[in-house]
Specification:
The complex is a heterodimer of chains A (177) and B (503). With 177 residues, chain A is mostly beta strands. Chain A is built from two helices and seven strands. Chain A folds into two domains: 35 residues; 115 residues, Sandwich (Immunoglobulin-like). Chain B has 503 residues and is an alpha/beta fold. The longest helix of chain B has 25 residues. The chains are: A mainly beta (177), B alpha/beta (503). The structure holds zinc ion.
Amino acid sequence: MKPRTPRAIALVAIAAVLIVGGGAYALAASGASGSSGGSISAGAARTTFPGLVAPSGQPELESIGKAHPRPGEVVQAAGPFDDRFLLENLAFDGAAVSGAVRVTSDVSAVLDLEVVAGFYDDTGALLGTGRFVHHLVDDGSHSVAPEELVTFTIAVPSGIAVPAVSVALGVPVLVNE
Amino acid sequence: MRRRISVLASTTVVAALLATAVVTAGTVSSASADDDKGRAKNVIYLLGDGMGRTHVTAARERYYGASGKLTMETLPAQGYVSTYAVEKGSGQPGEADFRPNAVTDSASAATAWSSGVKTYNAALGVDAKGAVVPTMMELAKKSGYRTGNVSTAEVTDATPAGQMSHALARGCQGPVYSDAACQDITVTGAALPTSDVRVTPIADQIARNGTADVILGGGLGRFDAADETALKGHGYSVLGSIATQTTATKTDLAAAAGQKVFGLFNKGNLTIEKSKSERPTSAEAQEPSLPEMTSKAIELLSQKKAEGEKSDKGKGFYLQVEGALIDKRSHANDAAQTLAEVKAFDDAVAIAQDFAKRDGNTLVIVTADHECAGFNIIEKGTFTNAEAATPPANTDSGNTANNSTPSRPSNARDAARSTGIINGAGAADPKNFGPATFRTPTDPAGVVDGSPEAGLWLSYLSGNHTGADVPVYAAGPGADQLQGTVDNIALFGIVGRALRVIG
Ligand SMILES: [Zn+2]
């Protein structure tokens, strides 16, 4: 599920060298000794994870690569949160797919949501992907729209030689409060 | 689209961050024999998410009657906690660039008591300028305590995550990284390299940092097979299966043993108590309750002798317990569900307090992170502003010197927005702002929930958090410091000094 590339490994190595070279294994508190009182043990914060390769690229779903929808179909591709939402009002006009994600679990605000769309040719072969990204910036101006319903439109990526005739949609990122 | 970070650019970013984020570290405390005198051996810190003063009163009246008491209310030290957050980039209280925000979210509040700093809403384990701050659970672990983190939410959600992760944005929960969910260039100026802990998905951090020995709650969907391998590599017994997304059950929990246990009982948040009691044969009813998880966590953490441990004398433990669904069901303005969750939380308090009494050297703190939804007890038969056509009258025709501006002659119920008791006659109307009513133990026989005769009338102001102070109750060594009003960042110092992990 976590995309890994050589570039990401290079980044990890450089970051590690800099952190060790800078003489600081863990970053310590600045304000913690203020009004809360007391001095803080440095180095207690766990900030490095040996063996965890830093991700690169956007979140993808394996199921998009495995889907082979028939011409005219807009299907759902499996993801980790399929029990938390419904896809509604799906429509595809050849240029873009649109619809809505209705979050069905514990919603007061949808903090983060990403919808990945795979576009396929008439043999069901994947031509390319597009994505919709929602991130709630809590600036105090709450939406007048229902919190649990997020509408999206995802265009067929440019540069695809043959027409896209079907779509698979999946949700790799979903956080609601 | 994803920002392409070149190797050169990321080098600059990391170097710049080190320059700004590393500050002088305090003294590392080492517990000598003298220091140990008066030390609390264990701290159990319980919080009802979104549980304001009225949540406590209403639950007391519903379940124990007006003259009864919840267990939390029987603890000897009682006070209030102020909960405000700060804006992104703000300094700490007293600093020139201090910019408060009156209403906190669960992330900022958790960071306040976990790390002793004010931070912006959505931040976890970082201050308002984005610098990593160590958490009480990390400090306790490093000092040799056993540690536990229990919640009815996903364990990657803000409250549990506040003790065992460092993230710019609470939405960076996993299983995968995403720029939008994890980065915050308002705080950091430029995107951080994805190797930086502050943009590492919280599930990945929890599975690899070993901060909590016992982790019980929800959120299996946030973890993946690589996380399971990492957890097992760190010596955890993983209940159920992450790789196959098989949730653990209360039977699995009952059988769990060992020093390190990781059990998630739902792919998302755990299920509300009201639903489980109404559907006892459902899969959700196989989830343990908060009291059951609390009891098991205490059992695991207080084991006299760990396998392979030479001494019988463990140093003690630090356990955080969250009743998360009080908040989530308050957002939903469902008083019946909310109060059942407060009751379950209070039952967990009773288990903690029973242990503390037997142990004799355990500090128990019961509080909340913030109030949620402006919960109120209204007088039987009255109505709220949300149900009114006009606000309350403010004209004094007897002495016009008392008149207000603008002047309003009357306060009338709006028949369109007040269509009956919401858990009774008005239940079918989704636009109804009517109150919920509940039978109390002293009501006459035959009085039922949702009736106008019921003694407890409850209403909500909104579906969002409020800035009201929250109650705190405490017992055990150091509890006297919670008598009165404290700010939420002071809770860090109180716990830290009780455990002697800060000087
Ligand atoms: Zn909330």
